[in-house]
Amino acid sequence: MNHLSEEEKTRREKLNFYREQSVNPYRNGLMPKNSIREIREKWGEYTKEQLEAEKISVTYAGRIMAFRHFGKAAFVQIKDREGKLQSYVAIDAIGADSFAIFKTFDVGDIVFVEGHLFRTKTNELSVHADKISLLTKSLRPLPEKFHGLTDVEQKYRMRYVDLIMNDEVRDVFKVRSKVIQYIREYLSKRDFFEVETPMMHPIAGGAAARPFTTHHNTLDMQLFLRIAPELYLKRLLVGGMEKVFEINRNFRNEGISIRHNPEFTMLEFYWAYATFEDLIALTEDMIEGLAKEVTGSNEITYQGEKISFAKPWKRYSVKESIQKLSGLDADLITDKALSTIEGVQAALLKAGDYKKNWKPHWGHGAYLTHLFETAVEKKLIQPTFITDYPAEVSFLARRNEKNPEVTDRFELFVFGRELANAFSELNDPIDQRERFESQAKNKAQGDDEACEVDEDFLKALEYGMPPAAGQGIGIDRLVMFLTDQASIRDVILFPQLRPES
User: Nearest CA to 429 among 204, 223, 234?
Assistant: First the structure.
């Protein structure tokens, strides 16, 4: 008890007082008939005279957020998941014994109120309490009303307090729920089938990323938390499930930033007989519709920048984007200059990149992609599709039939950030094996993001996977845009943090 504040000690002393008075400070079994939103929607327009005439009875529950005491009466502001509503509690209405108990209640306690609606002298809709019961005693005081949780890291560590104090935080996560619900309904209406795939994989695959590892004791084997569900979802295409999607949790053992959390949410979906061109049209339609549903418009403001999701969106190949948007000297980005590793390296140095960022196993395609990421990516503010990624950096994508050095793939960028990745799927098991083996060589040379050869997936491809297109969309980043949040931590309820010292 020595580490407790005086306020916390006083609250704990009240527990003994309640028990002496046969008051259960953690009562159960009282279900409110009304929510605050329902009360306001049904009777919020009633006049004082109408409420007096009808004497409408309600019961509601929530957390005490404020008191105003007047001797033998008090106004108490109560908050539930939908809003705030005050109750008037008077000694002559609830009785002297109950009022004595009520006076010991604290801000933060959760209570149950029975009463009838009325309007105060200032015309505020309120509940005249006939009875007020303690449901949960709060042993810690809430932050001050006007200061709240001022330490940003504490906001993330104690999200439960953040949600109590800040309605705008709760609103962000309401939007997140709407986003996921809209996507589910959108895909379901188009005959996509929602599935679940394993979160522990014997081989880390489906994307280029460093995995988290764990160990299964009974099987005595190393497993990896999934970095992507792709290879399992494509196994389902082999099995005849032609349109599938999963809203999944992925885990990547990488850095933490305002755009990255090691645990994050993705939508992945696969569509047999479609191409990446079909997915471009679907993506424009789905995200524009989502923006309208959530914000009321296909135009949003993100960090002060107007962004329009009105389709169609801009589109460039990787090489075109470098030539048109990089701002580099024209002689550095001609077709001839960009056709060799040495030429791309010269452009990278001019763009301010350093040789220390280059990896020894990179080929021409990897250098070209790195140049795009260095000189162009941050300039893509409006929704933009970047296509024709080199095969070297697209080990699961189908080669373009006219130019096998590139793939039928796109990435979607908004505000300089990748939001989606999609391609026509590689279903040639011979080509896929060669690309897996190339990845395995890179891994042997020290690339800890490269994947290994997945023999079971290759076996599935050998049974025959229909031509298909697949896509992943970052749910967290999508919610960031639609709620104007600068950090991914502000759209994840419990982001990963360092241990408290």
Answer: 234
